[in-house]
Design goal:
315 residues; alpha/beta; seven-stranded mixed beta sheet; two-stranded antiparallel sheet; 12 helices; rod-shaped
């Protein structure tokens, strides 16, 4: 077994003092060394004097022509060069580790955000920080929150009415859920809006439990007794759209997710009266830990895009 190293004695100077000594020896002048290190000559003189008292020997001989090391000072400077060199290597290593950490970003996002918003956001991040390696995982909002809490993601994006427990966050966008059907469905030709009671009593094609879509819909229909047993429960937006397009039944999906299908007429949005299906989309991170590095940059870019869109809307 290796012996436990003894603690340093009180005679060992701090790194700043050793750097000053080496600068004086190299430049031959206390004044020039002080200027190089960005301190005043009186401050440099006081630091050398304090170091001499701490070590217990005279380190420099001062004269009108400058300063040169004593015999003891030359020895201390030789040892100091090794210590300062090791500290510089440590500093370089720490910087490399920080750069490596700051050059990656792990994002976990709800399916809607991952598919319809994240590509544009990550393109903006790549333009701002081209050296950042990003990994993106898509999951439902409950799973995203768990991944952020477990340290598996640096930043998460969730749907839903409430901020998940144990996380801090900020609203970065808003979305609206739509009741959609195939053009052949009887609701596609209906003139009067569907009531919340009708929606609650109708078996729907829905996302799984834990999704932000399901949470918002459950809350909105609570006064009508909540959702009845779903017609189908599917874990992806693409599967829901396919089932609705085939005429299997009504589905509830993000407006972002069905924009193309509505524009081409493959799906029809059914008006619903008295039902608030707006929902916030949030960025989330562990409580008390503010986003850093690429995560902070991504949030800044998202906020800038949101502000630009808001400013472009007519008043």
């Amino acid at each position: 077994m290796s012996a436990t190293p003894a603690p340093l004695s009180t005679h060992v100077p701090e790194l700043g003092a050793l750097e000053l000594l080496l600068a004086v020896v190299r430049l031959g002048s206390l004044g020039r060394a002080a200027a190089e290190l960005g301190i005043t000559q009186p401050a440099a003189s006081a630091r050398i004097a304090a170091m001499e008292r701490q070590i217990g020997v005279t380190l420099l001989e001062r004269s009108p022509r400058g300063s040169r090391p004593t015999e003891a000072g030359a020895l201390v400077a030789e040892w100091a060069a090794q210590v300062v060199g090791a500290a510089q290597a440590l500093d370089a290593g720490i910087s490399a580790l920080r750069e490596r950490r700051d050059a990656r970003l792990r994002v976990s996002a709800s399916l809607t955000v991952a598919e319809y918003l994240m590509p544009g956001w990550l393109l903006a991040l790549h333009a701002a920080l081209p050296g950042t390696a990003v990994t993106l995982r898509a999951a439902n909002s409950t799973e995203v929150a768990a991944q952020v809490l477990d340290g598996e993601a640096d930043l998460g994006f969730v749907e839903g009415l409430r901020l998940p427990s144990g996380l801090d966050g900020a609203v970065v966008a808003h979305d609206r859920l739509l009741l959609i059907v195939a053009p052949t469905h009887r609701w596609a030709r209906r003139r009067a809006p569907v009531s919340p009671d009708e929606v609650a009593a109708t078996p729907l094609i829905l996302r799984e439990q834990g999704s932000g879509t399901r949470e918002v819909l459950n809350a909105a229909l609570a006064p009508s007794g909540g959702l009845t047993e779903p017609l189908l429960t599917l874990a992806s937006t693409t599967a829901l759209k396919s089932a609705a397009t085939s005429g299997a039944g009504p589905a509830v999906l993000s407006e972002l997710a069905v924009a193309d299908e509505l524009a081409t007429g493959r799906l029809v949005a059914v008006p619903v009266s008295g039902l608030d299906l707006q929902r916030p989309l949030r960025a989330v991170w562990p409580k008390g830990a503010k986003p850093k590095g690429p995560a902070r940059e991504l949030l800044s870019l998202i906020r800038a895009k949101r502000a630009t869109r808001a400013g472009a809307q007519p008043g």
